[in-house]
Design a protein that fits this description.
seven-stranded mixed sheet, eight-stranded mixed sheet, 28 strands, single chain, 4 domains, Rossmann fold, thiamine pyrophosphate binding, disordered N terminus, calcium, about 950 residues, metal ion binding, transit peptide, 2oxoglutarate_DH_E1
Amino acid sequence: MFHLRTCAAKLRPLTASQTVKTISQHRPAAPRTFQQIRCYSAPVAAEPFLSGTSSNYVEEMYYAWLENPKSVHKSWDIFFRNANAGAAPGTAYQSPPPLSTSLSALSQAQFLVQAQPNVDKLVEDHLAVQSLIRAYQMAYCQHIGVEFMFINDLEQCQWIRQKFETPGIMQFTNEEKRTLLARLVRSTRFEEFLHRKWSSEKRFGLEGCEVLIPALKTIIDKSSEKGVDYVIMGMPHRGRLNVLANVIRKELEQIFCQFDSKLEAADEGSGDVKYHLGMYHRRINRVTDRNITLSLVANPSHLEAADPVVQGKTKAEQFYCGDTEGKKVMSILLHGDAAFAGQGIVYETFHLSDLPSYTTHGTVHVVVNNQIGFTTDPRMARSSPYPTDVARVVNAPIFHVNADDPEAVVYVCNVAAEWRSTFHKDVVVDLVCYRRNGHNEMDEPMFTQPLMYKQIRKQKPVLQKYAELLISQGVVNQPEYEEEIAKYDKICEEAHARSKDEKILHIKHWLDSPWPGFFTLDGQPRSMTCPSTGLNEEDLTHIGQVASSVPVEDFTIHGGLSRILKTRGEMVKSRTVDWALAEYMAFGSLLKEGIHIRLSGQDVERGTFSHRHHVLHDQNVDKRTCIPMNHLWPNQAPYTVCNSSLSEYGVLGFELGFAMASPNALVLWEAQFGDFHNTAQCIIDQFICPGQAKWVRQNGIVLLLPHGMEGMGPEHSSARPERFLQMCNDDPDVFPKLDDFDVRQLYDCNWIVVNCSTPANFFHVLRRQILLPFRKPLIIFTPKSLLRHPEARSSFDDMLPGTNFLRVIPDSGPAAQSPENVKRVLFCTGKVYYDLTRERKAREMEADVAITRVEQLSPFPFDLLQKEAQKYPSAELVWCQEEHKNQGYYDYVKPRLRTTINRAKPVWYAGREPAAAPATGNKKTHLTELRRLLDTAFNLDAFKDLA
């Protein structure tokens, strides 16, 4: 096995003479204890020895020598004799006589060095030897290299030393070797079978790292032995089909039928390529005879994007089974070397590994180190010596191992699984291998790496190497080896024959997160209805009272917070709610119904705008906190609210994975400002938006995105609603004809997009998210200034039983009383409604202009807006928004409004002109633009110039 850039390959065990040269030549006094002996240079009886020598082992040899000088190698005998006689460290070792020479024929004086006077350099000599030992511990030789000396925990370092510095520790029984060979046969022959049957198909095979399959199975076996019964895995596409077949144990015919181009889809959605799909399977682990559940999370081609998703799903499964230490549920993440080094999401995910609300208590990371990324040489792809250096930031030990040495790989994987079980911290296994083919089976790697691939062409496959080794050792014979191959080939052929009978692809067979029992009620499919999301007044009052109090004795809160809680209490007495209290009531009511709620994001405990205050801090006692939400009901579900690290990509992926685990939880991620979702766009584009279409996997995650033009500059003004709306799958040119219009529309959409203008509607949409008979992602553009706007209040009456989320809020003022006299209908959404109503009142046009709020933008409320348009037969229709014309909602709303009215009249626009930035950075300009917007909205003559 060759290494392109592996530092360990540059190191070789030192000879005795080289060892001697590394320390000082000064002569100390004659030592009388081992503490003095160990300061001397040590001889090397055999080359492999020093690479694993520990000072403890030398100490044991010294005491053995004291009892019987013949019990150690002659070189050590001479060394200890000279050291005891007081020889200088640089001269204590003398080469033993050649084998052809009789020791008795030589004078012992030839090998013993006369004692010499002491020199005060003993400390320097000691440090020199320690430096030598440390050098080996930082890059062990042979086929295993270990990085751990940066770990600042002595117990952990000593644990690793024992695993790698104890001579003879890596021993395998013949049965273990035969099992390893059988696993290599399956891994190798699976790829060869696919190549024979579908030579022109991409499959992103595992050739060059076939040892990955026994590596993963070893980690799973050892973890199962330690008590783990659920393993959640994430990986890129290389080797995924092999992992599905030989680790997860998916039926081979289900994999093979995917190669049939005529296969029809039985399930909804567009589907995805076979090497992106996931799987969930519960089976018996034959090594431990314990049940084990394996889940491989579906992943797009964005490689490391699955990392935080897997961690979130793992955290959720641990949470739901009460596994507070990660002893039952664990995660395994697979990586490519180029992606592991190059993608920032790896760093973000590592930095979640030890945070209380995000830790999964240790992940085993396995890097398939191809020593190349697509066509890019490592010298052009990373600045660090190893692709795994990012793991050092969390003190994770890193085990480099030659992937052409299966026994070394299995040993390292056993150690990695034991590390995770013992310390519940991350660990990295770096499989230094190669990619026999190009990036995929159709790619020609010789274009860009000719010398590398000339070497690769000469490499024997690892199965051949290992089989030859075991045959030479007498562990197996040639007929047994050939029989093992023939047995697995027969399995593949039989599965291939069965796969031809598969005419329909059931993508649900590839689900990585099944929700048993959720989609049925008493054995029947759940009806497409949604009950009222209202709440009785007693519960509203009770939640409000807790929200405005401190349910813990002797707890001192901040004076400013006391005023906030007092204001909440006054609102409860007056039967009104603001935005924060409406959220509190929605959460509190769901907790009573047994729904776990998890709110995560930057500064969500207090709220970016200091409006939430779900975690109270004692002003006199450090780290003493109180979460009143967890003191609402005797047997309520738990409420988890957690400030996240300063990460969007990683944390949103984590929360998506958490929401994936169970439909009976409300999982919310709040961006500090709406435009912060920009840096999590991969999770939105690849998982949230198309997740159900690609993988028939529903997910009810909620994104809270603060949005609104407040004159504060282009940053943090817009949550970019146009991006979410552009990805909605409803047809702008088709008026839906559906029964149960509102619920059926929600079922058919890919996600729900809302911009609520009242606290009550916010309350209802959160509750509706759980009461629906299915799960869809929910995007909410939340306000900033409306959090404290005196008009943005709702009455308890809008939240009582019988009330629901309002997709559209019609005008209820004078205009609605005489609709035939209305000249204009302004359709809008969100905060701009309050600017429009204030301006309409100032102009005394309440009877002339109706203002209709579109609260749910997608799926579009065609039915309700049709009624609104028909209600005002003589009115001009205007879409009004505060965002620029090329942003916001206009491009989404206009064609759908025209479809609603069958293009009977034009739909005018009132708002800001097109612009590159979301908002101006000048306050005066902002106000000027707002004035122009309002003038346009209430000036009918201006519309004709803006068509």
